[in-house]
Design brief:
10 strands, 7-stranded beta/alpha barrel, immunoglobulin/albumin-binding domain-like
């Protein structure tokens, strides 16, 4: 048993995928979802089941699942298409890469490629062991939800639009998982105080924010929850801890780890960051070493802060789940080792729902500016010059739906939710997916236009996105 009097570490995993189910395959589309399932979600489930076999991993970390990801994992045929991807695409392309290396004499790449192929074979077996019920098994550990389609809430045009996103997201979580203590991941941690009443109305009791530029990097204020103007508690992310993992100089840049960007002929990863053939054992040793270093640094952070503030602190390290496993191949080995190292070094781990009963929130500062954990910690990723037209397109659509209210169909509401998704502006700003994000955003706008006033709008155009969304949040007084 570890003592909590020095403070606690709250690891937060935000699990999200743009709605790609049924919208394209390679190089953009469903393949993103299949990759995330194989390399992030199934390995994460193994870690959670090992350390919390009875479910409810809230003593270890906080897991959020976005409703739009759940919509995709719930879709008909998802298991069959995933397993076909593993065998017909990943299995076959690994076979071709291995054959090419033998023919060319690049035998030093055979072992790394065999390691890569084995990971997908493991994923197929793991998926079979849980009967294909990935959503149900992850749901045993999920505590937090998010907005319906990962909308950047401060960019929405109306309170009703925000209410639609929040209440639809909460209803989706409750329908699927039954229990919810009020934890809500603000997409991209994008926050403005005017959101407080609408969040509270949706039942939100706690959310994460990035106030690094308000309090200063490494300040003791980052380790204490804050009380907003309503019932919602704002929990600062400790960026000084977060950047040990997720930054240009973070752990994943170490030489032995697998290089995510250098690819073989058939788009597999066979090299380490230092350019040598990838060695899984060397990378695993480094993951364990980095986990020990991480825990030691968090302990030092908490001890130092306690000397300043006079009380224990809550150190929140949040990251996208897909970062672990997919982007950082060894990330889930690292997470597993962090859980073990925390016990060995005497660091208390906690879920946020549990932790909030032990920390009295301080009053939040007045006149808070708009913040996010994105580039420059503002909203420029989603409303900069390159994507300004997408923002105005989204806001016009929202005003049309909110203005029509009772006259709109549930199809129009779902089409609006699709249009409000943050993902397409993000991908367009970073130019990482070619024409795909703009095509998706424009298609969503067309669907909304066609659904407004239509008697026979084809709902199959929306696939399985927010299938039970209702007009109720738009009709409230």
């Amino acid at each position: 048993m570890v003592a909590r009097d020095r403070g606690e570490l709250a690891l937060v995993l935000h699990t999200h995928m743009p709605y790609v189910e049924g919208f394209g395959t390679w190089p953009f589309g469903e393949e993103w979802l299949w990759e995330a399932i194989a390399t992030s979600y199934l390995p994460l489930l193994e870690v959670l089941d090992r350390h919390a076999p009875d479910g409810a991993a809230d003593s270890l970390l906080t897991l959020s699942l976005t409703p739009v990801l759940c919509d995709q994992l719930d879709a008909d045929g998802i298991g069959e298409r995933f397993t076909n991807f593993l065998t017909e695409i990943r299995g076959e392309t690994h076979r071709r890469d291995l054959a090419g290396c033998r023919e060319s004499g690049a035998t030093d790449l055979l072992a790394p490629l065999e390691h890569s192929a084995a990971a997908y074979e493991w994923a197929q077996a793991a998926f079979g062991r849980i009967g294909g019920d990935l959503l149900g098994r992850l749901g045993r550990h999920a505590q937090w939800t998010s907005s319906a389609t990962h909308a950047i809430l401060p960019l929405l045009a109306t309170d009703r639009g925000v209410a639609l996103q929040c209440q639809t997201g909460v209803a989706s979580h409750m329908r699927r998982f039954g229990q919810w203590a009020g934890g809500f991941w603000l997409p991209e941690c994008a926050y403005l105080p005017w959101l407080d009443p609408t969040l509270a109305e949706a039942g939100v009791k706690a959310t994460c924010v990035d106030f690094t530029d308000i309090f200063g990097l490494g300040s003791a204020e980052q380790l204490r929850p804050l009380q907003s103007s309503s019932a919602t508690v704002l929990i600062p992310i400790d960026r000084s801890t977060h950047e040990l993992v997720w930054s240009d100089g973070g752990y994943p840049r170490a030489a032995p780890y697998r290089d995510h960007h250098r690819l073989t002929v058939h788009d597999h990863r066979a090299w380490a960051n230092d350019g040598t053939p990838y060695d899984p054992e060397a990378a695993a040793r480094r993951a364990r070493s980095d986990a020990a270093d991480f825990v030691a640094r968090v302990i030092f952070r908490l001890d130092t802060s306690r000397e300043t503030s006079g009380g224990p602190g809550l150190c929140v390290c949040a990251m996208d789940t897909e970062f672990l496993g997919h982007w950082w191949h060894e990330g889930l080995l690292w997470l597993d080792a962090v859980i073990c190292e925390a016990a060995a070094q005497g660091l208390a781990l906690t879920g946020l729902d549990d932790a909030l009963s032990r920390y009295e929130p301080a009053p939040a500062p007045h006149d808070l500016p708009c913040t996010s954990w994105g580039t420059q910690r503002d909203l420029s990723t989603w409303d900069g010059p390159r994507v300004a037209d997408l923002v105005w397109q989204m806001r016009r659509g929202e005003l049309e739906v909110v203005g029509a209210r009772a006259e709109v169909s549930s199809g129009a509401v779902r089409a609006l939710l699709a249009l409000q998704a943050s993902d397409w502006a993000f991908l367009e700003t970073h130019e990482t997916a070619g024409p795909y994000p703009r095509q998706r955003a424009d298609t969503n706008a067309i669907n909304l236009r066609d659904s407004l006033g239509a008697l026979n709008f084809d709902l199959s155009r929306l696939r399985n996105l927010a299938p039970r969304a209702t007009l109720a949040p738009l009709l409230e007084p």
